[in-house]
Write a structure and sequence with these properties.
By secondary structure, this protein is of the alpha/beta class. Helix content is 34%, strand content 27%. The protein has 13 helices and 18 strands. Helix 1 (16-31) packs across helix 4 (72-87) and helix 6 (154-166) packs parallel to helix 8 (215-224). The chain is globular and about 80 Å long.
């Protein structure tokens, strides 16, 4: 007998038929003798509807009331899942985040989990063989006794954190795809499902554009060594596919140099030209951006021939492009740049693989292959297990396919 946490995303619980199908996955595990906790998201589209109602009620609304409203979507799903399980003959009850409790920080809309007391759920496992159906995405700030939410995709984080708190043997994330692929199959038809991916690789993939898991959920899994399976809820519950295991590096016998290719279209590039090359100039640019909550990724600094001025190029999320330009324009006198230019018609393409640690020249091969396809690289960043290039968005599919083939990921 194992202790499992199963999480079902919005598309997996989009209507009663899909909730019933997901419940069959739960029943399969219960019938096998496992202790099961279930984490559910809101039904597909429901959170967007609730967010829209908040904006319609007041553009500048109270974040605490916003959380009270948007957290309700998961409560509906949890109750419906419990009812369906009961109808199938499975002992089950629904739990709201505050009832467990899942205690969080007070950052409404983006709270972080601080502790989970799973004692009562574990007691009910042993005494009643009861399935706990838990509303994901939410918790409680103890000092204020207010409901909090964890941000978009927060149900993934809820699931992994609950799995850690309960000492679960694994956490199965059921979604609308049957695992993690070498890249997006819609771009590269030859993309393959990976049997196993390390926590570090999945963290990079999630942060670089892969939408399978929320970044914070992977961080929690890695910190607590929670094995996570990504599986499809649309599989036949009586014959489920294995999915992809996210695990520690030592659990993978043999690792490819490059595991996957990710890409992110939500990128924008900004260039400030002829800035005085002196101490403090970088701080005058990037500190105000950080204070405004604008994340900066790639940074390139080029010093002019006279060594007196420099050009600074960097990327920001596409959604923050106009806001970043406006903020820098306001501080032109303080920064002292001659011109500001930028574009949001760019994409970041990344290659990820833990095997890069022990192989030289991995990125150089990509640069050569891209140049042979006539693809100009605007910026480059590297780390121990990945490299990213910024290119014109028109070349996205060509670049992804080129790198996917280059590193042998087309092969079965």
């Amino acid at each position: 007998m194992s202790r499992l946490v199963l999480k079902f995303g919005g598309t997996s619980v989009a209507n009663i038929d899909r909730i019933r199908n997901s419940a069959r996955h739960v029943k399969r595990e219960v019938d096998a003798g496992h202790e099961v906790a279930v984490i559910v998201s809101a039904m597909s589209g429901k959170t967007n509807e609730l967010v829209g109602w908040c904006a319609e009620a007041a553009p500048l609304h109270d974040a605490r009331e916003y959380d009270a409203i948007v957290a309700s979507g998961e409560l509906v799903t949890a109750g419906l899942m419990a009812i369906v399980l009961q109808e199938m003959g499975v002992q089950a009850r629904s739990w709201q985040g505050w009832q467990i409790p899942i205690l969080t920080s007070d950052a409404h809309g983006a709270a972080r989990i601080e502790s989970i007391d799973g004692g009562e759920i574990v007691r009910r496992f042993s005494e009643r063989r009861e399935v706990a159906v838990i509303a994901g995405f939410q918790g409680l700030h103890e000092a204020t006794n207010r409901v909090t939410t964890l941000g978009r995709g927060g149900s993934d984080t809820s699931a992994v954190a609950v799995a850690a708190a309960l000492g679960a043997d694994r956490c199965d994330i059921y979604t609308d795809v049957d695992g993690v692929y070498t890249t997006d199959p819609r771009v590269v038809p030859k993309a393959r499902r990976l049997d196993r991916v390390t926590f570090e690789e999945m963290l990079e993939m999630a942060s670089l554009g892969a939408k399978v898991l929320q970044v914070r959920s992977v961080e929690v899994a890695m910190n607590h060594n929670v094995k996570v399976f990504v599986r499809s809820s649309f599989d036949d519950p009586s014959d489920p596919k294995p999915g992809t295991l996210i695990c520690a590096e030592e659990d993978i016998m043999e690792q490819q140099v490059v595991t996957g290719i990710a890409f992110a279209r939500d990128e924008a590039q900004i260039t400030l030209r002829r800035i005085a090359d002196k101490p403090g100039v970088a701080a005058s640019i990037f500190v105000p951006l950080a204070e405004a909550g604008i994340n900066v990724d790639m940074i390139i600094q080029v010093v002019s021939d006279d060594a007196a001025t420099t050009d600074m190029t960097f990327t920001v999320p596409g959604a923050d492009f106009e806001r970043a330009k406006a903020l820098l324009a306001e501080r032109r006198g303080e920064i002292g740049y001659a011109t500001l230019s930028g574009t949001d018609d760019v994409v970041k393409v990344s290659a990820i693989g833990i095997g890069m640690r022990s192989h030289a020249g991995v990125a150089a091969r990509a640069f050569r292959a891209l140049s042979e396809k006539g693809i100009n690289i605007r910026a480059i960043t590297t780390s121990e297990i990945k490299f990213s290039v910024l290119i014109d968005s028109a070349y996205t599919e060509l670049a992804v396919r080129t790198l996917h083939t280059l590193y042998g990921l087309d092969k079965a």
